[in-house]
Amino acid sequence: MALGLIFSSINTTEALAASGSCSTAAAVAGICTNAQTSNNSVNVWGRTTIPGGSSSVVAPAGRTTNSRPAVVTPVYFPSSLAFRCLGLVSPSPQCRKTPATPAPAPVTYAPITLSDLANFVPQSASLTSQPRGWTVVNLNTNFIAGASTHVVGGSLFGRSAEVRFTPHAYDWNYGDGGTQTTSVAGARWDALGLREFSPTSTSHVYGSEGSFSTSVTVRYGAEYRVGGGAWIPVSGEVSSAATSTVVIVQSADTVLAARDCTAGRTAPGC
After folding, report:
1. Is 186:194 a contact under the CB 8 Å cutoff?
2. For residue 153, what is the domain's CATH number?
3. Is the pLDDT of residue 233 over 90?
4. Reported pTM
5. Which of 6, 12, 191, 213 has the fewest Cβ atoms surrounding its Cβ within 10 A?
6. Same-domain pairing of 160 and 192
7. Are residues 85 and 198 in the same domain?
8. Residue 98 within any structural domain of the chain
9. What is the extent of the structural domain holding 143?
10. What is the rounded distance in angstroms from the CA atom of residue 125 to the CA atom of residue 47?
11. pLDDT band at 102, cuts 50/70/90?
């Protein structure tokens, strides 16, 4: 059972006796004799004594007339008693504890969204084809989008900020009804180590002659930072304006020629 308040001085006894108050706590502690004083007499349990004279004090059962000690022996109280932390003389260390100041709640801010970055516009991609500007019916035409990671500066909520755009996807429209989405921008045949008219991840086959406007839209992932801090990703993607190019599709006949007809039109078979 926990121990609490300790009374260690006669001063407490004198103070409680002089006040004429005898609370339950004081009575249990043995520091209150139920004595009331006046200028020239002391009333002890209903009997009056006069200083310097004789007295016929009768103590209640279990007490004696000298039961009021000169020094109060330390008294320990069970923690269950209500007066344990009243602080009458010297409260226990548990009662002296100052409540800890609660930590302030963390400040949270709404996350930045793509709408907050409306003033930061990514660059448009370039678009080229192989063969350049023309192609042959039923053969693969290779398309290459020029897009890369780049940073756009500006102001965000009144502070200097930057947004970094990274291409994630490419939406192709080949102008004849054919479409596809790729995760790569495409590359030249020679860079891929392929022969001309070979299929690639971004190539397309036109089935008829004509002039077709081919376009590509690049979708970028976005990150931002303020004041040169760390990059923070933003949920979603930003699409750049579509870039287009015109491709003329023609038929071609296969013939035998003495040499390259491009170099010499007068060669037999050209």
Report:
1. no
2. 2.60.40.10
3. yes
4. 0.56
5. 191
6. yes
7. no
8. no
9. 114-250
10. 110
11. confident
